[in-house]
Amino acid sequence: MKKLAWITLATLFSVGMISCDDDDDDNGNRNNGCTLQELEIVSDGDTVSYMMTYDSLDRIVSVDQNDGIESNTFDYTYNSDGVEQVTLSGPLGNTLVTLDYGYTGGELSSYTLSNSITEDTLEVDVTVNSDGTVNTLTFDTDIEGSNFSVVATYSYDGNGNVESVTATSEVAILGDIEVFSTSFSYDNRDNPLQGIFVDLDDIQSLINNNSPNNITRVEVREADVLNPLDGLALTRTVTFDYDYNSDRLPEDADVTDTDEDSGDSEESEWIYSYECE
After folding, report:
1. Where is the composition biased (Acidic residues) (predicted)?
2. Per-domain residue ranges of the chain
3. pLDDT score recorded for residue 171
């Protein structure tokens, strides 16, 4: 499970930042004049808040996360190609994680994830489609005592939403191959989290991508190691049930996260606050 979580996280870093120069603003607030100011996630009586700050171009420049005990901050910097760097700082202002994005000919071609606590570094090569969306990611890493390489392939629906991410990992020495697949379903409303990447919540590592619409369902599948010929088995399902405001944006969402192996579910409520012109 640790390997699956790490692969999922690594393959979604790129999608959250891939498009920063489209005809709409970078925060999913296309033509409705609203920007997301705060997202609150309430689960088991605990509340985690995310406060957004934007620059004069309506680009996200920081996200402050606070769970009532400690706070963390994501800071974004830009160059002419798009997002140049994202840093995660702890409550004392110390840098915990740094994401550096590389571009070739104006298109995302690589990114590097550096963890200052573990001193680990992950370097990812990116190929893109003709429209600038991510096609594949390739990286090598060491998790659970094994060196393995990963190739992740993306597909999209007609609206430009990420429809699926399929990751194939191969252990360097043994040659064992594992396959993980995540599929997404969407509504037809604007996604206020578009272009905003934060990852302190496990569900958010699944949903923070650059899709223009809001995810309504996530299905995670992986190969059954005991019965590999059976194909990919459904291991996790996340559903989002939204209420919308008059601007056609999510006002709140009831989120259910189900472990398909055990049948256990966790529920949370996501509450969105906006500033509209």
Report:
1. 252-269
2. 2-276
3. 66
Distance CA 77, CA 183 (A): 30
- How far, in Å, CA of 218 to CA of 259, rounded? 12
The residue type of 3 is: K
In the predicted structure, residue 29 carries a pLDDT above the cut 60: no
Does position 232 have pLDDT exceeding 60, yes or no?
yes
pTM of the model: 0.83
On the 0-12 / 13-18 / 19+ scale of CB atoms within 10 A, 24 is middle
Percent of the chain whose pLDDT exceeds 70? 77
**C-alpha separations of 273 from 51, 55, 78 in Å:** 10, 18, 25
Does the 2-276 domain belong in CATH 2.40.160.150? yes
Say how far apart CA 137 and CA 147 lie, in whole Å.
17
Which pLDDT tens digit goes with each residue over 242-262?
A: 999 999 999 999 999 999 989
**Paired tokens of 79:** 């160059």
